[in-house]
Amino acid sequence: MIRLLKLVLYLALLAGFIWFGASVQLGTRTLFGHIQNIWKTHESQELVDGAKGKVGDLVDRASDKVSKGVGKNVTAPASSRGEEQGGQKPMEEVQNEDRKALRDLIGRKTKPEE
């Protein structure tokens, strides 16, 4: 019930602000008329253009970082993973002891701590 009353109050305040801004004269113009004239000035347009330029640069840099990050997650070809390709043996043989130690290490890092 209180949420409904708050909603009605906020809507009434919003409606009052819109009515005030559109109909009450503040000098030669209404509030919204003053805001519109300020928006049309050369200085405010320069501000908008500068902000668009900075945001564009930021988006370009972020896109570059994302594309580089996505490139890191691409699966490497079989030859770089040490798998046989075209009948060739891997460049380095991994001993069974090392494989077991690596599996144990991975197991410890992936188990949740108790």
Question: What labels would you give this structure?
Answer:
mainly alpha, 4% strand, 68% helix, two-stranded antiparallel sheet, 114 residues, 4 helices
Notes on the protein architecture:
- Helix content is 68%, strand content 4%.
- By secondary structure, the protein is mainly α.
- Strand 1 (25-26) and strand 2 (29-30) form a beta hairpin.
- The longest helix has 31 residues, at 42-72.
- The protein starts with a helix and ends with a helix.
β-strand number: 2
Low-confidence stretches: none
CA radius of gyration: 32 Å
Average of pLDDT? 82
Reported for the largest beta sheet, the result is:
2 strands, antiparallel
Instruction: Please identify the structural class as seen in this structure.
Output: mainly alpha
- The helix/strand series, from N terminus to C terminus, equals HEEHHH
Shape: elongated
Strand order of the largest sheet: 1-2
The CA-CA distance between the termini, in Å, is 46 Å
Helix content: 55-70%
What is the strand content? under 5%
* Number of helices, counting only DSSP H or I runs of 4 residues or more: 4
Short description:
The chain is mainly alpha-helical and 114 residues long. The protein contains 4 helices and 2 strands, in the order H-E-E-H-H-H. Helix content is 68%, strand content 4%.
Helix/strand layout:
Elements: H1 2-23, E1 25-26, E2 29-30, H2 31-39, H3 42-72, H4 96-110
Antiparallel strand pairs: 1-2
